[in-house]
């Protein structure tokens, strides 16, 4: 998996003390330094294996480049907008978050914002502090019977919907991933966005900030809304176009807005904050004692589990790697990586189309984690610093390598209980096939030649192809090993194809010079798995 031992973790923001305590109890050294400047962070991160942040620390490509030992960035919260996930992926750094940690707190704040908009509670409270008694000025509306549109029906969105249903609100919504059948189970009718705008009295957004969601509410969509629509954004600044919102407020098309987040935080342009129909908070969605304790506890436990090899949860950019921690999948990932390395070595190329075929019911869902493993094996001998299951797919694409998978439930009878993995370099005769025996990855076939006794794929290996009638190659190899003081640990030969056999030899150490062997064989390779 190409992950080293986690030793030192930097916490760059204020978190519940339980975060530090759990990390230390897990055997990790912890450095707490909240409020670091960019320059200070660049200095502090150099010798850290892990970094834990909330939302203030910007984990940029520059920070990641400075972090020579960094293996994981943990975000104590839901979104990862402040982390350059692509740059982290490229470097093989895991990014993880705590998607459930602050869901309830963010949902409750959203519900409070909706109530405040309906009854103008903050404005009325401020008026009272000024010594006024303006009962007529703060005429509100009942929520009962009103329509609430929830855009984004993940954990927070559905918590908001179910709570506001208790006030008698009709809940409609939109989510490109959650199916209408699923959203119906928690009382939300899904509609196309074009049908949502004119039907909504209140709109609340609960999506991540993506190119597709930036400016989701804009001049065009406000124009399609009911006049006086109320808008809530406790998700991410930028989902609601702030300029368009201000124009809609000024024209009366939007009757009020409640904002916990802004495009720039804190906002320098105060026009929205100062508008009389705007309620605003300084990004308090996760600011409860319970959420902070929960997020700190969860991210610490996730990092300790990773450090101890127990498992991976909350991974944003290395889902395949999370499978690598399961005892039943570890040997298959090792096999796939080894097959990729053997195929690349024999095929003498790292570009082109590689086809993975999994055979047998046990491997039906294996494509998701075998694909990056094969890619990592193919790229292992290249110029990349380090190829892991985190960055293998991205680096493979950039290297001109396309890896695809197919599956068949039918496997040879001898492998039906475990499964078989075939990896082919399309457009060439090169194909390798392997399986797992016990917990040992083994090679069953290479370029159509079958090994009667499968060859283990581990440690220093020497692979050669020679005429089946010529036994001098093995004798020459034995002499080379003797001169080098190395041992022959295993020997496996294949069936004969076109008068030639493949041999795989397990060595105690690689040989530095194969000059004597090369005249005896058609081709020879050394690799270390």
Automatic annotation (TrEMBL):
Residues of the D-isomer specific 2-hydroxyacid dehydrogenase NAD-binding domain: 112-285
Top-level taxon in the UniProt lineage: Eukaryota
Reactions it catalyzes: (2R)-3-phosphoglycerate + NAD(+) = 3-phosphooxypyruvate + NADH + H(+)
Pathway where it operates: Amino-acid biosynthesis; L-serine biosynthesis; L-serine from 3-phospho-D-glycerate: step 1/3
EC number: 1.1.1.95
UniProt domain D-isomer specific 2-hydroxyacid dehydrogenase catalytic: residue ranges: 9-317
Record keywords, A-Z: Acetylation, Amino-acid biosynthesis, NAD, Oxidoreductase, Phosphoprotein, Serine biosynthesis
Protein family according to the UniProt entry: Belongs to the D-isomer specific 2-hydroxyacid dehydrogenase family.
Oligomeric and partner information: Homotetramer.
Protein name: D-3-phosphoglycerate dehydrogenase
Gene behind this protein: Phgdh
């Amino acid at each position: 998996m190409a992950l080293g031992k986690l030793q030192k973790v930097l916490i760059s923001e204020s978190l519940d003390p339980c975060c530090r305590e759990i990390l230390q109890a897990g055997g990790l050294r912890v450095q707490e330094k909240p409020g670091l400047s960019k320059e200070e962070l660049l200095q502090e991160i150099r010798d850290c294996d892990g970094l834990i942040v909330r939302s203030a620390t910007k984990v940029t490509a520059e920070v990641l480049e400075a972090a020579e030992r960094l293996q994981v960035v943990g975000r104590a919260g839901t979104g990862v907008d402040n982390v350059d996930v692509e740059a982290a992926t490229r470097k093989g750094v895991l990014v993880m978050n705590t998607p459930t940690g602050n869901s309830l707190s963010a949902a409750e704040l959203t519900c409070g914002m909706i109530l405040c908009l309906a009854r103008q509670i903050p404005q009325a409270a401020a008026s009272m502090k000024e010594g006024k008694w303006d009962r007529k000025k703060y005429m509100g509306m009942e929520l009962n019977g009103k329509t609430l549109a929830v855009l984004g029906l993940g954990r927070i969105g559905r918590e908001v919907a179910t709570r506001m249903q208790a006030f008698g609100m009709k809940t409609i919504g939109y989510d490109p991933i959650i199916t209408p059948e699923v959203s119906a189970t928690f009382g939300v009718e899904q509609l196309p966005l074009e049908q949502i705008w004119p039907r909504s009295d209140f709109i609340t957004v609960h999506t991540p900030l993506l190119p597709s969601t930036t400016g989701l509410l804009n001049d065009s969509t406000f124009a399609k809304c009911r006049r006086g629509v109320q808008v809530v954004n406790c998700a991410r600044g930028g989902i609601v176009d702030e300029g368009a919102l201000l124009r809609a407020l000024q024209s009366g098309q939007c009757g009020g807005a409640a904002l916990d987040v802004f495009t720039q935080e804190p906002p320098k342009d105060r026009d929205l904050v100062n508008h009389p129909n705007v309620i605003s908070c300084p990004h308090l969605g996760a600011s409860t004692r319970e959420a902070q304790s929960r997020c700190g506890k969860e991210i610490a436990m996730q990092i300790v589990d990773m450090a101890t090899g127990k498992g991976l949860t909350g991974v944003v950019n290395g889902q395949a790697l999370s499978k690598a921690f399961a005892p039943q999948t570890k040997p298959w990932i090792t096999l796939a990586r080894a097959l990729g390395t053997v195929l690349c070595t024999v095929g003498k190329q790292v570009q082109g189309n590689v086809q993975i075929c999994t055979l047998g019911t046990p491997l039906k869902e294996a494509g998701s984690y075998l694909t990056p493993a094969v890619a990592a094996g193919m790229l292992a001998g290249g110029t990349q610093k380090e190829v892991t299951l985190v960055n293998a797919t991205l680096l493979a694409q950039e290297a001109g390598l396309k890896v695809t998978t197919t599956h068949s439930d039918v496997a040879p009878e001898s492998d039906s209980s475990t499964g078989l993995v075939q990896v082919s370099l399309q457009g060439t005769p090169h194909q390798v096939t392997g399986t797992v025996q016990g917990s040992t990855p083994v090679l069953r076939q290479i370029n159509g030649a079958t090994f009667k006794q499968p060859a283990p794929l581990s440690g220093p290996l020497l692979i050669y192809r020679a005429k089946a009638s010529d036994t001098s190659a093995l004798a020459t190899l034995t002499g080379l090993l003797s001169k080098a003081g190395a041992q022959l640990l295993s020997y496996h030969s294949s069936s004969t194809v076109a008068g030639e056999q493949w041999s795989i030899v397990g060595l105690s150490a690689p040989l530095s010079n194969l000059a004597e062997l090369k005249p005896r064989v058609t081709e020879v390779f050394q690799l270390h798995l």
